[in-house]
Write a structure and sequence with these properties.
CATH topology: Uridine Diphospho-n-acetylenolpyruvylglucosamine Reductase, domain 3
CATH architecture: 2-Layer Sandwich
Shape: globular
Number of strands: 12
Strand order of the largest sheet: 4-5-8-6-7
CATH class: Alpha Beta
Number of domains: 1
Largest sheet: 5 strands, antiparallel
Number of helices: 12
Distance between the termini: 51 Å
Order of helices and strands: EHEHEEEHHHHHHHEEEEEEEHHH
Strand content: 15-25%
Structural class: alpha+beta
Helix content: 25-40%
Length: 326
């Protein structure tokens, strides 16, 4: 059963920001994650501030420089099916299409997908885990088959978003607004490693709203892909995923970004694997080298060493998809 809270639906951004400044207020967008968190008692809220009447936060708009401005309330279905996103920002289109189920993609928003809370069963369950303010990450010595192999210090949760690694592969920026003003940050700066603060996943403050996601023009010869490995064909979160965006010049890779999902508390960029590609032809042997390098430095827990091989497979498949699309 959901706890008691008040619900407001402002009709302007200024009113929404004013409502959100109240203690205990939380943003409500699609609600596909927040309502579950409230039901599980993983988070609390005295007031939900619905953004659904704010048309300014919806839609995909082409910019004069060839980039995109994507409103945070844009649904995952809109992203997956938008012709410009599909044609020029392939990793993002594929990632949005791979998220959840059709029903959840119709309801879930891009901003909400980026700001999801952990799916860890200890966080969602009745455990005083470190991320909820306790002093123990129960997954480290417990059921950890779906947990992190990179970046897990105090907490070994994995970031659940499919779109976040795709956006990072596209060098996206995120605009945050509050009654105090606005700020724009790189998407890699949006997420917080446990070593820095294990009680939060993003730098979004309680009185801030994710308003826009800004995509720069894709690199020359851009081709992108997203590969997601999961237990079932729909609904499941990534066990391992790989978002790839390459800039190609004839046969040579001029620019490369590879970002993993399902393996770390934040989208995990594998820069050394990228460097193995830049300046070289995208060949099968080169893909194998980069895929192997992508798993370098992994530190598996007691039940998730299988993820090391899945990382190699996901990266190899994503790069193979790109090679086939040239």
């Amino acid at each position: 059963m959901l706890p008691r809270f008040t619900h407001v639906q402002p009709t302007s951004i200024s009113d929404a920001l004013r409502e959100l400044a109240a203690p205990g207020a939380r943003v409500l967008a699609g609600g596909t994650d927040l309502l579950g968190c409230l039901r599980d008692r993983a988070v609390t809220a005295d007031k939900l501030v619905s953004l659904n009447a704010l048309a300014e936060l919806r839609g995909i708009r082409e910019q004069g420089d060839g980039g995109l401005r994507i409103g945070a309330l844009t649904t995952l279905t809109e992203l997956a099916t938008h012709p410009v996103v599909r044609a020029r920002f392939g990793a993002l289109s594929a990632a949005a299409a791979a998220a959840a189920s059709p029903q959840l993609r119709n309801q879930g928003t891009l901003g909400g997908n980026l700001c999801q809370r952990p799916r860890c069963w200890y966080f969602r369950g009745d455990f005083p885990c470190a991320r909820k303010g306790g002093d123990t990450c129960f997954a480290k010595e417990g059921e950890n088959q779906l947990h992190a192999v990179f970046g897990g210090d105090v907490c070994v949760m994995v970031h659940p978003s499919d779109t976040a690694p795709a956006l990072q592969s596209l060098d996206a920026k995120v605009r945050l607004i509050s009654a105090r003003g606005s700020r724009t940050i790189g998407i890699d700066a949006l997420f917080v490693l446990p070593a820095k603060d294990h009680t939060r996943e993003t730098v979004v403050e309680a009185d801030e709203i994710v308003s826009d996601i800004l995509l720069p023009p894709p690199p020359a010869g851009a081709v992108g892909a997203y590969r997601k490995i999961r237990a079932r064909g729909v609904w499941d979160f990534a066990i391992v995923g790989a978002a790839v965006t390459l800039g190609l010049d004839k046969k040579s890779v001029r620019q490369a970004r590879i970002v993993l999902s399902g393996v770390a508390p934040v989208p995990w960029r594998v820069a050394e694997a990228e460097r193995l590609l830049v300046g070289h032809e995208l060949s099968a042997p080169r893909i194998e080298q980069a895929a192997t390098q992508a798993s370098s430095g992994a530190a598996p827990l007691s039940a998730n060493a299988y993820k090391v091989m899945l990382i190699r497979g996901a990266v190899a498949e994503a790069l193979s998809d790109v090679m086939g699309a040239r």
